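Hi L.,

As promised, Thioester domain-containing protein:
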Amino acid sequence: MNLSKKWIIPLFLLIVIIGFSLQPKLVSAATAEAWGPYSWTDSSGTTHTTALIKIGGKLVYCIDPDKNAPFGGHSYQKGNPYDYSTRAIFYYGYGGDGNELGNSMTAMVKTWVALNNWLEGKDTQKTYSNKDSQVWRLIKHAKKQDVPKRDIKFNKSTYSSSISGKVQKSEKVKMTGDGQATIKIPKKVTIHLDNKTQTGGNITIKTNATFYFTAPLDYDSEFNTGNLNGKVSEFASILYLPSGNGMQRLAGGGFKEDPVVKAGFKVHFEARQSKITVEHRDKYDDALLEKSSSEKTIGTSYSYKAKTKITKGSNTYVPTSTKEKTGTVGSKDKTIIF
């Protein structure tokens, strides 16, 4: 980025951080830096011009383009909270965590245009600048208020699993709160949600959902989602209001100092076992000659051969068949007879 001008402006601000359960924070002093100006011309031939402004290295936008920039150290006070519509423009616009416009200065100007159009109630394509596909995309996001919300909770932090038929099945997971979560599922684990299943990969779950997981009986790992609330900082909105008339207000997103409340869970899976008993019996009277048992992991293979001979008292027994018996360990105990 070529910086044609640069100003350093000391500001005394009261920052209102609007998030989920966020409280206002007092910042005693901050420095604003501005570059530009930069311009974009819409389809009607109207040229829109603004500066790239940052406070503490964070992007902000002026929302009173006809007023003076706050040069000279003007004091500021807190303003009204922003709703999710404004946050959506910050999130999906230039500099946002979900940036859909790109990183050019044209994208920055279009984000500024969309923000001001929205705040001025210009939310239709009767406004020429809204006919631009990228500006209109941000306006539609503002209408939907579809900025990610990060205030989810789960009914437990750890879920156990048990054998259910030929799989391990977890307890039911209940997600509540406000927002959605994207869970990365291990490749051998399957999620069951709304009569649908998905094995491995990422899945996005909306609030008030109930679901559970299954895994093969030989799966022996603990599934940990990590923190699914993410960082609230990307989605917060701040308003800077001047104490006097005639000065621009500044608006920005992504200023959050408080740690976010973590939300996530673990699902405990373990390799399940069943007992295999091997018996050697007399072919004629079915008398038990020898017996041994062992625990085997379900889903693994087994292979057993008859002993070459068994001596019991004065008698020696030899197998009538030396054929090997093989198979896969099931969920129920098994007895193999030679």
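The mean pLDDT is 76.

Thanks again for sending the construct details.

K.
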